[in-house]
Amino acid sequence: MISAPAGGGATGVRWTVIDGWTLTRRALAHWARRPGEMVAGLLFPVMVVVMMGYLFGGQMDVPGGGDYREFIMPGMFAMTMVFGIEATFAAVAGDAAKGVTDRFRSMPMAPSAVVVGRAAADLLYSVAGLAVMVVCGLAMGWRWHDGVPAALAAFGLLLLLRFALVWPGIYLALLAKGPESLVAVQILVWPVVFLSSALVAPGTMPGWLGAVAEWNPMSATVTACRDLFGDPTVTGTSWAAGHGLLMALAWPLAITAVFLPLSVRRYRDRGR
Amino acid sequence: MTAVAAEGLRKRYGDTEALAGLDLEVPAGSVHGLLGPNGAGKTTAVRVLTTLTRPDGGTATVAGHDVVRDPVRVRARIGLVGQHAAVDEVLSGRQNLVMFGRLYHLGMRAAKKRADELLERFRLTEAADRTAGEYSGGMRRRLDLAAGLILAPPVLFLDEPTTGLDPRGRTEVWEAVRDLVDGGTTVLLTTQYLEEADRLADGISVIDRGRVIAEGSPERLKARIGGDRVDVVVADPEAVAGAAAVVRRVTGAEPDVDEEALRVGAPVSDRAASLTETVRALDAAGVPVADIALRRPTLDEVFLHLTESEEVPA
Ligand SMILES: Nc1ncnc2c1ncn2[C@@H]1O[C@H](COP(=O)(O)OP(=O)(O)OP(=O)(O)O)[C@@H](O)[C@H]1O
Ligand SMILES: [Mg+2]
């Protein structure tokens, strides 16, 4: 008989941070063990932006003039953030299906650590994804024109959007029947990207679609980023389009306020 | 001292009553087996006792703490090995154990040391740095078990711990369980293998449709369907019915017939006399006999007997 060490049961902020960090490191270890998967995930948006920029770019007019590649780059950054919800969903649904979530729930760890660890890991990955896209953008001729502080603020807004999407990602994954539902999330993500100002001016869409696109949370972030980068932009007709920066803060905060408590509760009450 | 006590546990899923007033009492330091057919409610009972599922009614305490009111204290005192191996399939076996050790709030050095000990004990040292997803089913199961044993918790729950293991893997799990019990751990295990309950358990609760239908030591349960049994194996399939008729007449009991094994068996009260009489009657009836023997009932028979008789009045 080997004598086992004694552990400690604990809740509270301190353990949320420590246990959350253990789980973030778990995600880092995943990337180290599966570098191919990670690299493919980072390069997918690069492929999309190259396609958009060079294949379709010639045909597209930027309203009010300007370079189409410079126009779409902030949209592509935001798209990379929005795609991130798929990674969140896949990771959480996979753990739930494998019983890993239930093992965590049966352990004396801080319950909130599971979602905190997930959020931190996803943000780290998104920082890497954003960095790759920025390099790709610079190579394609995109620039920020209004100085580094404004550019940093724009990157902050992009990561804020990504942070907000962690929570619906977790919530939907815990609600879903299994990891197979990822396909449904992937299918839903595309209209969010296309029905926004990321790739085209909402003004060129049929009236009501244009309004939907202008109110799309992703458009808010894209518009605010274009302003902060000093990139070519579109002027919309709706109130949302006129208050890009405000909406780029309000939307993510609203999404977080709704889905963070929902996802934490869903995690705690699983199987009740 | 009682390690696990449950009273009138209820849990309903839609129209299914998974637990219909389950009572359970497991003395500290013992191994208790939860036996039941598929869908009996074994996993649901384990989930309630390990704080994963909130019961609709009834109360339960584990290691002295109420599972509903004080789940955090309960979690610090239990280990759970679920019905399906719950390990991270991307990480290596060692990374899994270190991670779970950290989440049990061991320091990094203690977590690593414990991981090495457990890898060694479950013959996983060689595979320690391989991806757990590439392990065989048995290896993954052993890793899962090791993760449940990190703290050598006072109360350990094992939901079908040896399902899918080869005989050697099964023996290892049994040894690990006995080791733990020697060290004072209380074990509640569910199993489909009656042999497993027979070998390991001090007490058994047979459950069916969310309720305990029989309880006691393996010996007592066996005694419940009579002491000895006579078993007749006939030489050809045609003779099974004839043998059954003879056995019915001699023993006065409805015989269990296994058509495939060509075997007819029934409980008897008087060992020697029944055997002699059965042999004589079979001979007189001209039934071709391949083998005939007296033996103790197996737990399988007790189990079938109990769960079948339960189904009749429904
Ligand atoms: N989450 C759930 N949702 C709906 N029904 C459930 C759920 N969990 C269990 N049940 C139902 O409750 C009953 C008891 O299930 P449980 O898993 O506890 O049985 P079991 O004894 O563990 O069976 P097995 O030997 O197959 O593992 C079954 O009828 C099952 O279908
Ligand atoms: Mg089960």
Characterization of the model:
Chain A is mostly helical and 272 residues long. Chain A has one domain. Chain A is built from eleven helices and no strands. Chain A is globular, with a radius of gyration of 20 Å. By secondary structure, chain B is α/β, with parallel strands linked by helices. Chain B is elongated and about 75 Å long. Chain B has helices at residues 42-49, 71-75, 93-103, 108-121, 137-148, 167-182, 194-200, 218-224, 240-251, 271-285, 299-311; strands at 2-13, 16-27, 31-35, 57-62, 65-66, 78-81, 155-159, 186-191, 203-208, 211-216, 229-234, 256-258, 263-267, 289-295. Chain B has two domains: 2-223, 3-Layer(aba) Sandwich (Rossmann fold); 228-295, Alpha-Beta Plaits, CATH 3.30.70. In chain B, helix 3 (93-103) packs across helix 4 (108-121), helix 3 packs parallel to helix 5 (137-148) and helix 9 crosses helix 10. Chain B contains eleven helices and 14 strands. Chain B has a six-stranded mixed β-sheet with strand order 6-7-8-3-9-10, sandwiched between helices. Chain B is 38% helix and 27% strand. The A-B interface holds A 1-11, 15, 18-19, 22-23, 25-26, 29-30, 33-34, 98-100, 102-109, 113, 269-272 and B 47, 50-54, 72-73, 75-76, 78, 80, 82, 84-92, 95, 99-106, 110, 113-114, 117, 121, 131, 147, 149-152, 179-180, 182-183. The complex binds adenosine-5'-triphosphate and magnesium ion. The site of magnesium ion has 4 residues of chain B, from helix 1.
The overall pLDDT of chain A, averaged over residues, is 88
By secondary-structure content and strand pairing, the structural class of chain B works out as: alpha/beta
Q: Looking at CATH, which topology of the largest domain in chain B would you report? A: Rossmann fold
| Major beta sheet summary of chain B | 6 strands, mixed
Q: What is the residue-mean pLDDT of chain B, rounded to a whole number? A: 88
Q: From the 3D coordinates, which CATH architecture of the largest domain in chain B would you assign?
A: 3-Layer(aba) Sandwich
Kindly state the percentage of residues in helix of chain B.
Answer: 25-40%
Helix/strand structural class of chain A: mainly alpha
Compressed to H and E, one letter per element, the order of chain B equals EEEHEEHEHHHEHEHEEHEHEEHEH
Residue share in β-strands of chain B: 25-35%
Share of helical residues of chain A: over 70%
